[in-house]
Specification:
single chain; alpha/beta; Arc Repressor Mutant, subunit A; elongated; 13 helices; Rossmann fold
């Protein structure tokens, strides 16, 4: 459904049954909590049956409750403040084992990312990167960790990499001032999306550069700007952004680019190994006696 789910609920309120109105009112006032409740839990919260909740989702035009829940989650993820994230995650976790829940959630996000990955767009993005005149990498706030990781390996593979530092808006644009045709910019952003990343990608596109977005969904503000969109499922673990699936996607991209640069890569790392050994970059493990 393209329409905002809250607007759909609001406009249909007069036609709902008594039980459906209880569900609707709860969602309208506490959508940040409802989005992460099971149908059973939502029903118990508003004192209706689980089947009533499922029928309510169908009434709104969704194939089932999971589809309605997904629509709610996608709508709110970019809107939640840090305080709301803490409240929602505390509600989700309850008395469960935190280590198990968080890691199982990360595993699920990787599985979903793999199932929904567009292989053709992934391959085209890798080819565009390998043939680029210059490669710009931009990730702000928590996405900066992924951008730095990608930049570290790309700097070993290529001579033409610019990892954009994001101290201020003006500095971002100063660093991409000369971007143009033949260049590639890789913008990385997940909810809550960075406005600076979006603006920089728009500028790069207007200058004729190829734009690669690494983000979470077609609803991301990065997706309409991009020539190639690489999607990975992210999640929130309390106030923390869970970016395990995006990092796994970036790992795959590095490997794919490395395979395309295979001959050059072997020579590069051969030289690097000599340098690392000569200047004792790495601590050598003692052999077992």
């Amino acid at each position: 459904m393209s329409r905002d789910i809250l607007s759909t609920i609001q406009s249909g309120m007069s036609g709902f049954s008594k039980g459906q109105k209880l569900i609707a009112n709860f969602i309208l006032t506490s959508y940040d909590k409802a989005a992460f409740m099971t149908a059973s839990r939502l029903g118990k919260t508003v004192n209706v049956s689980e089947s009533t909740v499922v029928r309510f989702a169908a009434e709104l035009g969704y194939d089932g409750y999971p589809a309605m829940q997904k629509a709610l989650q996608e709508m709110i993820r970019s809107k939640l403040t840090s305080i709301q994230r803490i409240e929602v995650s505390n509600d989700r976790i309850g008395n469960q084992d935190i280590l198990s829940m968080v890691m199982q959630s990360d595993i699920e996000k990787i599985r979903m990312t793999l199932e929904e990955a567009d292989r053709l767009d992934f391959e085209r993005a890798a080819e565009a990167i390998v043939s680029a005149r210059r490669i710009y990498i931009l990730g702000i706030r928590s996405a900066g960790a992924i951008a730095g990781f990608l930049g570290f390996y790309f700097n070993l593979i290529f001579e033409n990499v610019v990892v954009i530092h994001s101290t201020s808006v003006s500095e971002v644009f100063e660093q991409i001032l000369r971007i143009g045709p033949g260049d590639v910019i890789i913008g990385i952003s997940f909810p809550r999306y960075s406005r600076r990343t979006v603006k920089a990608m728009q500028y790069a596109r207007s200058r004729g550069a190829t734009v690669v977005a690494v983000t979470d969904s077609e609803g991301s503000p990065l997706a309409p700007i991009a020539d190639h969109t690489l999607m990975a499922k992210s999640d929130m673990a309390s106030f923390v952004d869970s970016l395990v699936a995006p990092l796994s996607l970036i790992n795959a991209l590095i490997v794919a680019v490395g395979r395309l640069k295979n001959d050059d890569l072997s020579a590069t790392f051969g030289a690097l190994e000599q340098i690392w050994d000569e200047y004792e970059v790495y601590e050598k493990a003692e052999e077992e006696r």
